[in-house]
Amino acid sequence: MNQRALLLLLSIIILVACASAADPAATVEQYLQAKVNGDAETIRALLCSEMEAVWEREANSFQSVTGVQIEGMACARVGETDTVSCQGRIIALYGAEQTEFPLVSYRVVEEGGEWKWCGES
């Protein structure tokens, strides 16, 4: 194997290893932020294959409200499980009424070397 081919192979191995080692808690935080922002493309990219059928529902969750924001978000993977536990809350205004949605635990799965959000656990 020539030096160029070996370098390419090593680069691919490193990229795959880094992708697999990504933090599933960061995926959940990105997903929740995209949901609050109504970022349909990011939501769709972060959903697991099991949830693809409901991506539009997820993207439109806060479409009819104002003042949507996340406060105190802190997420962490629970050991080596497929669960990410989050603290904090989503706040939204429905008309003049403020509603709070506490952040809970979410299920993640690794698909294609990337962590994906797969609903509440």
How would you sum up this structure, described in words?
This protein is an alpha+beta fold and 121 residues long. It has helices at 3-20, 24-37, 40-46, 55-59; strands spanning 66-77, 83-94, 97-102, 105-111, 114-120. Strands 1, 2, 3, 4 and 5 form a five-stranded antiparallel beta sheet that branches. Strand 2 (83-94) and strand 3 form a beta hairpin. Helix 2 (24-37) runs antiparallel to helix 3 (40-46). The termini are far apart.
Helix and strand layout, with pairings?
Blueprint (H helix, E strand, L loop, with lengths): L2 H18 L3 H14 L2 H7 L8 H5 L6 E12 L5 E12 L2 E6 L2 E7 L2 E7 L1
Antiparallel strand pairs: 1-2, 2-3, 2-4, 4-5
Helix pairs in contact: 2-3
Summarize this, please?
This protein has 121 residues and is of the alpha+beta class. It has helices at 3-20, 24-37, 40-46, 55-59; strands at 66-77, 83-94, 97-102, 105-111, 114-120.
Could you list the spans in which at least 5 consecutive residues all have pLDDT below 50?
A: 5-21
Series of secondary-structure elements, N-terminal to C-terminal: HHHHEEEEE
For the CA atoms, what is the radius of gyration?
18 Å
What's the N-to-C terminus distance? 47 Å
Taken as a percent bin, the fraction of beta residues is: 35-45%
Mean pLDDT score: 86
Tally the helices: 4
* Major sheet details: 5 strands, antiparallel
Helix content: 25-40%
Descriptive tags:
single chain, 121 residues, alpha+beta, 36% strand
